[in-house]
Amino acid sequence: MKVGVVSINNSPYIIRNGDNYSGISIDIWETIAKKANIEFSYVEISDEETAIQKIKSKELDILVGPYTITSKRYQDIDYTIPYYYSDISLASSKKTKNLENYLKLFKIFGSIIFLFMLILFLNKFIVNFNVKANFADYFINSIPDFKDRKLYILYAIIFICIVIIYIYTFEPDISLNISKKDSLKGKNLAYTINKDMIEKIIKKNEAMGTLIKVKKVSDPIKQVQNNQLFDYYINNIDKVYGFLDDSSKIAYVMNNNISKYKNIDIIQNKLAYYLYAFVLPKKSEHLDIINEKLREAQSEKINQIIVTKYLGPKFENSVSF
């Protein structure tokens, strides 16, 4: 089989070292090929669109790499079952404002406690109402003291009911992560890939986008140590809030880099999801056996071992289906 690969700007999925290839997509493919007794050779392609055209014309037997499954492409090509799922993440040196988040949680739980105490107070105030009593004493005596242990179960039931009613009524955000639209509203975000998908994210969050045109780099060391998107961000940190990219690519650079990127981290993930699969010509005779061996490798957790080797255990479930 002729296996098309695009190594340009594709680490950690395709990593080229001379005539040798490695990476998540390569290692998974070679596992499948070994299981299916498939003989093959790699053919380097300059870009993804050229590779797709070569599959359509059947100049290649399969494309191995991070190819997104789209309904539009299904008209002309076939995909294997997914071998990896990823997401678009936001990376930045900006830190989550934890103090504001904790204050937010404090307000939520404070409101619940206040409602709980108010209900107990009103109940005691009404039950013990006496027009002849001194109001100040009567008011003080109506404050719940929780001395009667026989009522603890009742107190617990009332508290749980208040929590449920509060959540269903006000739908509070109790997350400590940056998750609201307002967190990205008006922010300038840089990006290079998945133009249509990222522009939808930017529009949805009412942010601003800056498309960065990057040079074609096949050298895996340069992709990591002189990553153009990372470099653009740190050189324009006053103008750009952060950058959007495949979370696995971001993690790979951060896990294998020099100190100049040490302050950058993923501060928001799962902004969009997509699946990666291998690409074959329509009605390829190899599709069924490759799918069979992909399922086999997934069930044997081989793919998890491969991903862990490149990205660590945090991403091992990205190959579980």
Mean pLDDT: 89
- Describe the largest sheet: 9 strands, mixed
CATH architecture of the largest domain: 3-Layer(aba) Sandwich
How many whole angstroms does the radius of gyration measure?
28 Å
Tell me what you see in this structure.
By secondary structure, this protein is an alpha/beta fold. The chain folds into three domains: 2-86 and 274-319, Periplasmic binding protein-like II (D-Maltodextrin-Binding Protein, domain 2); 91-96 and 180-271, D-Maltodextrin-Binding Protein, domain 2; 98-170, no CATH class. Helices cover 41% and strands 20% of the residues. It is built from eleven helices and eleven strands. The chain has helices at 24-35, 48-56, 98-127, 135-141, 152-170, 195-204, 220-225, 228-235, 247-255, 287-299, 302-311; strands at residues 2-5, 15-17, 20-22, 41-44, 62-68, 77-79, 84-92, 188-191, 208-211, 242-246, 265-281. Strand 8, helix 6 (195-204) and strand 9 form a beta-alpha-beta unit.
Give a short overview.
The protein is of the alpha/beta class and 321 residues long. It is 41% helix and 20% strand. It has three domains: 2-86 and 274-319, D-Maltodextrin-Binding Protein, domain 2, CATH 3.40.190.10; 91-96 and 180-271, 3-Layer(aba) Sandwich (D-Maltodextrin-Binding Protein, domain 2); 98-170, no CATH class.
List keywords for this structure.
alpha/beta, 11 strands, 11 helices, D-Maltodextrin-Binding Protein, domain 2, 321 residues, nine-stranded mixed beta sheet
List the helices and strands and how they pair.
Layout: E1 2-5, E2 15-17, E3 20-22, H1 24-35, E4 41-44, H2 48-56, E5 62-68, E6 77-79, E7 84-92, H3 98-127, H4 135-141, H5 152-170, E8 188-191, H6 195-204, E9 208-211, H7 220-225, H8 228-235, E10 242-246, H9 247-255, E11 265-281, H10 287-299, H11 302-311
Parallel strand pairs: 1-4, 1-5, 8-9, 8-10
Antiparallel strand pairs: 2-3, 5-11, 6-11, 7-10, 7-11
